[in-house]
């Protein structure tokens, strides 16, 4: 697990007809692999938005989580001691892992989405 003991600080909780939207601060320390990026042991704090989408029967359909990955990576790199050879070696491994993921194609499930049915459109007749 990349972040084995996450800590969540609620910012806001909202709802719509078919979703619950949660904004929160996510804090944690990097202990495991994150894709091809090795663990740094450094801490991070990032603002996150999560969408919990439900179907017509109120069953959870999906959870979508959005955050700025570069902010997290920057914080994880800041915790490395670049004055020591071990820190420089870890920095090189982290950057190599991050660069190898940067050119990867997105998961097809993110690209092949259905247009939502929002019901009939209402046109304002002023």
How do you describe this structure in short?
The protein has helices at 69-78, 85-102, 108-111; strands at 7-15, 19-29, 43-54, 60-67. The protein has 126 residues and is of the alpha+beta class.
The biggest sheet amounts to: 4 strands, antiparallel
- At CATH's second level, what is the architecture? Roll
The side-by-side strand order for the widest beta sheet comes to 1-2-3-4
Predict the CATH topology. Nuclear Transport Factor 2, Chain: A
Overview of this protein structure:
- This protein has about 130 residues and is of the alpha+beta class.
- The chain has a single domain (about 5-105), classed as Nuclear Transport Factor 2, Chain: A.
- Helices cover about 25% and strands about 30% of the residues.
- The protein has helices spanning about 70-80, 85-100, 110, and strands at about 5-15, 20-30, 45-55, 60-65.
- The chain has a four-stranded antiparallel β-sheet with strand order 1-2-3-4.
- A hairpin with a 5-residue loop joins strand 3 (about 45-55) and strand 4.
- The mean pLDDT is about 85.
List the helices and strands and how they pair.
Elements: E1 7-15, E2 19-29, E3 43-54, E4 60-67, H1 69-78, H2 85-102, H3 108-111
Antiparallel strand pairs: 1-2, 2-3, 3-4
Features:
3 helices; single chain; alpha+beta; Nuclear Transport Factor 2, Chain: A
């Amino acid at each position: 697990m990349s972040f084995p003991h996450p800590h969540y600080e609620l910012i806001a909780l909202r709802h719509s007809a078919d979703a619950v939207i949660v904004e929160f601060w996510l804090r944690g320390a990097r202990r495991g692999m994150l894709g091809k990026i090795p663990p740094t042991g450094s801490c991070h704090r990032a603002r996150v938005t999560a969408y919990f989408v439900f179907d017509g029967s109120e069953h959870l359909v999906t959870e979508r989580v959005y955050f700025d990955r570069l902010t997290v990576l920057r914080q994880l790199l800041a915790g490395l001691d670049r004055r020591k050879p071990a820190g420089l070696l870890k920095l090189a491994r982290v950057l190599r892992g991050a660069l190898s993921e940067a050119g990867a194609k997105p998961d097809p499930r993110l690209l092949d989405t259905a247009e939502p049915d929002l019901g009939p459109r209402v046109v304002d007749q002023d």
